[in-house]
């Protein structure tokens, strides 16, 4: 955990103590571990709306409160949606911002539309918008007055009255601002309006415009469909890219029905170049942000319209999987983001924040893909298509962004044998914070910043380090049989953490852990994968939010393929899955000579010679993949005469998977060969283990003589 993140946590605590209010500054990185209890994100609001980020228009960026904001303009925008093809491209909401009402309510306490701006009233405008097959949105503030200096009435204390009025007018969308709030608790204010909107019975998208002051990503999903994460955007590169940086770190909080909102689009307003506007639009789509046009469409340029109507980029924003893209790498103003897509591919943005052209590069592995021999790339701006074996790179102009849709080719199933999952390419990997790590814990930030995988004091050299919410997919191709894995919260979660692990064969859950906390020891899960095309490893939070949810899939062993053919086999004629030895290599049909391959002699135990077998030296381990196809192993074991007289003392053990099925006891060079027989029925793996008997490994030449493996 970085000093910067500790400092941010400390600053937050100081602010809380000083103000007695939850009003920390927006930060560009996730808060770090510490003594402060962070807010917990609640369940998504259950109104069935905004399953993809809302798309539409809002007048504020182009008109503010000037006189041209009026009924004719709003109707003209609705007309433009249709005539310019924006409705067809997916834009739906025609929203009006502040200054639509009179400064005072009527004698009944109702809001009154400004008769100069809207001579036919708001309902007539809403009806006109609806007649075009579009939806209509309105603005208010969770305070006594709205944000404009003229001071129009806010909704604080009038929540149900205002909501009922808006519903009667046919309002479909509410932007609810944060001005003049009298220091009333933000959650209380926004919850009140959310409840009022629900009580109307009318589907109304609820956009919480709280500016990120009270970290709404932690709580606003309970009440609304989107929440502003920053202050207002302005039409400049520095404003836009600064807001993007703040919003990028909040990806885990977004999803169908509830979105991080980095504010409206400035495309077409003239303060940035077309290159910068393409970056603006690309990043907002990559962050699954609401796409609300902020320019007057009645005079929009063809270049701006081309940006706003790029259906390939819009498709990324509207992808039904609903995942916000995350930063894969960021160094020297070169930023790579990856967004998981519902078809199993990724959208990738290569952004150059510098003032001269640069090359920006990444790989399929880095963006969360793998397991294929090739990938197709579609440039979503130039429309050019290409293929790659894994490298993704482009020359990017100053302040520009190249955006690709990356689609994997046909995935390749794992080879026969037992594999550590961390050694295999995944087909897809998404993670709550930072990348999924191979053989390290998840450190939340850059790749490789984790530590040794450790669950409640037990360390592991192999495995996957993840963070809730995490989802990793492997292609099995129907060839794999089972997965065995230890799961738990990594010891890196010093301040707690609670998660649930689930394993899926295709869409069927085949193993689950229940909720595991940092206090729990590792839990062994075993999953039957027979016939499965895909394996999914899913980590979710334990119901208390995602802070500190470092989750380990440790020693994850995947068994794939068929075992030996039917019949009886000399073990030395088969290919082992792995072999380790004390001195020199494991030898086939020869004793172990301790040095180079082939330097041994005929296998001989106490004068009896054997033509077939394995010559090893303690400590030695040889494994074979059985694939549940074999039933028994018979073998004669002993210290090879090469050890000389009574020299050498070893113990032979046979394991079916993790179960000891035969044990020779201590044997020395003076002992005759001992016959062992092991039941291997149902076993995925056979392991032949030789250890010294406690007196060191000198002269411990050990023979597995005449080993016969019987398979069905």
The percentage helix is 10-25%
Give the low-confidence spans: 1-42
Question: How large is the radius of gyration?
Answer: 32 Å
Mean pLDDT: 91
The major beta sheet can be summarized as: 8 strands, parallel
Please list the strands of the largest sheet in the order they lie side by side. Answer: 7-6-5-4-3-2-1-8
Structural class: alpha+beta
Number of strands: 42
- β-strand amount: 25-35%
How many helices in DSSP terms? Answer: 11
N→C terminal distance = 54 Å
**Bulk shape:** elongated
Structure commentary:
This protein is 16% helix and 34% strand. By secondary structure, it is α+β, with helices and mostly antiparallel strands. The strands form nine sheets. An eight-stranded parallel β-sheet has the order 7-6-5-4-3-2-1-8. Strands 9-10-11-16-13-14 form a six-stranded antiparallel β-sheet, covered by helices on one side. Helix 9 (274-286) packs parallel to helix 10. It is elongated. Residues 1-42 have low confidence and may be disordered.
Short description:
The chain has 712 residues and is α+β, with helices and mostly antiparallel strands. Helix content is 16%, strand content 34%. It contains 11 helices and 42 strands.
